[in-house]
Amino acid sequence: MKENRKNTLNVPNLRFPEFDSNWEEKYLSELMTFKNGLNASKDDYGSGYKFINVLDIINNDFIKHDCIIGSVNVKEADFQKNIVEYGDILFQRSSETREEVGQANVYLDEETPSTFGGFVIRGKKKADYNPIFLNYLLKTASARKEITSKSGGSTRYNVGQETLSSVKITTTIIEEQNKIASLLSKIEARISTQNKIIEDYKLLKKGMIQKIFNQEIRFKEKNGNYFPAWEEKKIGEVFEVTRGYVLAVTKMTQSSDTEYKYPVYSSQTKNNGLTGYYNEYLYENAITWTTDGANAGDVKYREGKFYCTNVSGVLLCKKGNANPCVAELLNSVTHKYVSYVGNPKLMNGVMANIKILLPSIPEQQKISSVLSAYDKKMGIESEYLDKLKSQKQYLLQNLFV
């Protein structure tokens, strides 16, 4: 590919070498005709034709018949009037935020058509374009800005058929569209494969955990004998049960440096609960769990020195019981003790009274080594996945005008 260092109007930063003509502005109405979806009575939903709704647009990279959530029972004539076929583009009609209104997705099922709902606008293909290319183009910052800037509303933002007809995009000849679509599809397929690899490792680890914790797999001492029988213990008998402290986001940094080097953990699911970095730490080599909110009961082993917020409980033990093995043992049972009266919660007193079967510390160390090996491999695969996603993002930012 070639890079255009002196980018001129209507030329992307990155191109295949065989293309050098300017891209052209076109109205979406030159490429497709628009129609609102059908509205049925509530008794008609749940069976019949697959029925594309807003969640199908938002939750998928592209839409195929089998991934559509809902269905609707309508007459054949109504289905044909509202048919969705390969290459059609679906738009979200309204949203509570301007940033999300008019989100687009493409229907890529060549075998089975579908229909669509009243909160969706269908763009029926009438001109030559590569559907995959157009799907990516409509997700670029410039295309999103063109759509959202034309949306109307105050408490809820909307786009209509006339709005979408007036949207201008910058596109290229079909041959270049095909090349770009092919490249991005290959990147997408590799990302999908990488996700599958990581999920497979997660399943392998889960299966191993089940066999170890059911004691189908046992470990032996150096003399060849099995380690001692596991003993039932209350968490409060083995650990000091405490929790983290409030820390304002403004006091953290989002990346580590020589001063702000201690990770701060909270209740969020992304980045393994990592919220930022701080210049002080509270604990070292301990087990944490989420005390409040949607992730209440989630247990993690935290290696090294760290800070954690007040929605994290902490288990401290100087005798060696704080390790990945015990964290996984706990994680397999703690969710049964979460209270769902009001906000989900698993507080210190409840945690302290949970009983689990504990292996001896030497066997815990053996089990922890096995589990850590899985985690290390998944970490390597996850890093590669992040690189693939960064590569895709770079291409999306530079292959379009």
From TrEMBL:
InterPro entries: Restrct_endonuc_typeI_TRD, Restrct_endonuc_typeI_TRD_sf, Type-I_RS_S_subunit. Its EC number is 3.1.21.-. It holds the Pfam family Methylase_S. GO terms for biological process: DNA restriction-modification system. Residues 21-199, 230-389 form the Type I restriction modification DNA specificity domain. Belongs to the type-I restriction system S methylase family. This is Restriction endonuclease subunit S. It comes from Plebeiibacterium sediminum.
